[in-house]
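ingest -> validate -> predict -> emit
validate: passed (alphabet ok, no gaps, 164 aa)
predict: started
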Amino acid sequence: MDRRQAVLPFRAVTSTRLHPTLADSSFAGKARILQIFGSWCSNCNDAAAYTVELHRRYGDRGLAVVGLAFEITGNFERDSEQVRIHAERYGIEYPILIAGLHDKAEASKAFHVLDRVRAYPTFVFMDGEGEVRAIYTGFAGPATGDAHAELREQFESLLEDLLR
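emit:
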């Protein structure tokens, strides 16, 4: 897939299920991770490397990942280019959608299943039926040592459950 084609406009969710533009037939029956992030966010950059690892490890077992980028400028072309560079840097092969501006209050309006977007990144874990099963806010990167190891254990345990 051409990474430029993976950067598309986002449409908001209106329930605990994804909007049909995100829940199309390519996701049918698949566990999903929605990664709410910004290419400008240092923790999001740490998270990108790990999310790519998860996608590669679990993709063949039915995991789909979608990145939802909340960027700084609001200029679609400029933000798309930043996201393209981000995707290239980390070898991201899953779709990334330009979701809006980085303002947390604005980002929260797009996610009725969340009371609010508290931090970047935020991970929304969904089962094969499209139901939200877990939300994780923030990211303990590799420099956090034991906290990172614990996060990895939690994410991978959750994914194993979702993929059964």
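The domain at 7-162 is CATH 3.40.30.10 (Glutaredoxin).
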